[in-house]
Write a structure and sequence with these properties.
It contains 17 helices and 18 strands. Helix 6 (about 215-230) packs parallel to helix 7 (about 245-250) and helix 9 (about 290-295) packs antiparallel against helix 13 (about 340-365). A hairpin with a 2-residue loop joins strand 17 and strand 18 (about 455-460). The model is unreliable at about 1-20 (pLDDT under 50). By secondary structure, the chain is α/β, with parallel strands linked by helices. Strands 1, 2, 3, 4, 5, 16, 17 and 18 form an eight-stranded mixed β-sheet that branches. The two termini are about 35 Å apart.
Length: about 475
Amino acid sequence: MKLKIILGLGLFIVAVTAHAEKIALVGATVINPADGKVMPNATVVINGDKIERVAMGKQDAATLGKQIGCVGKFILPGYIDTHVHFFQSGDLFTRPDGADLNSIRPYKDEVAWIKSHLDDVFARYIRCGITSVVDVGGPMWNFEVRKRASATAKAPRVAVAGPLISSVSREKLDLGDPPIVRIDSPDQTREFVRKLAEQKPDLVKIWYIVDKEHPVESFRPIARATIEESHAHKIRVAVHATELETARAAVEEGADILVHSVIDKPVDDAFVKLLKDRHIILCPTLVVFERYGRVFSHQLNLTPEEEAWGNPEVIATLDVTKIPQDKLPQRIKDALAKPEEALDRIKKTYDIALPNLKKLEDAGVTIAAGTDAGNIGTIHGPALFREFQLMKEAGLTPMQILQCATANAAKLFGGDIGSHIGKIEKANFADLVILNSNPLDDITHASDIDTVIKNGVLYPASELVPTSH
């Protein structure tokens, strides 16, 4: 049954925003992944930007305000993507340190385009039912993105980290406000964290890169100093750690959050126990591991949601065969010459990452869904639905996946906002997604979106994404 709305939803939204009048969503099945409860024939009462109450069965109509019939629908908390990067567009030109195509599109032009399309990116997140995101690192202008999002109705709530603290630098990304800053000593990192703290970041991020020149132990003192200084300012620390020993070292030094899966070897029981004992949140970002290799080898597997709701300008750049042969970086030439090798590398990554995720989930480690959107081929907004598919392949149930994208993700978002999102309960923000079909039957239904509610304002899904630019 379609939402019963008199005079069309468009007029109704004007009324809601003008007067913030009380509304009631009546007759839907409410799914609250935080505690796994499913409430059939439920009513969700929204007053202004907050949930006033959730109840089952027939309600006193006089207490409901404007009623919206939702029989046959499924209501969930708004989804949360806990790993995005607004300084990256997802297009082919967005990481010149990985594939330098400055001769086709100068990086400064890329960044200017990104800054001019922020509202478009915000709207695409809302279209996907994603009402909150965590930007896990970028230039200092990230803090302006957070400010802009909070002043924009059709935008997700945004938590941000500033520049990544790293053992390596990425000169090709430095236009005077670098997203990645090389730190060489504990004193230097303490000073940098103090500078960051002035901007009130939601997180501080460490990019813990390990190679022959940068063994795990060499960066430990800097990681320790970063974490100590951040904690002194009551700021949590997230660490990029894709190797088991890097992740272990980061947690031993006091990190709060691990971003990315461990992909070099199976996690051991001692590591699982360490994460549980320290109440670590882990964000697996499975989708990003396939996208670079698939784009570069011309084997991109965008989902129907990405084709429909991703930015078409971004998607159009991802066909590497359109780049003149003489302008292609060697990395892309090699991938095109041996496409099967790219797929083999991806398979080997997932052969480790997926069982690791299942082991951590089964052990009760808090897993938060995130995509690393903005990296080449990982599309802002709808990439989350590919992440859900990969989590399903790992063996997670639909309810577990939804918990990762709501209640668990809210813990990673953190702060006062984090404690008021991710659950459908009294006094939480009215950030909801209304689905046409049951995601507990099949997680692919998570994208069968009828309406998105952010801050108590209703947005019919079909009206959220511009059809042309």
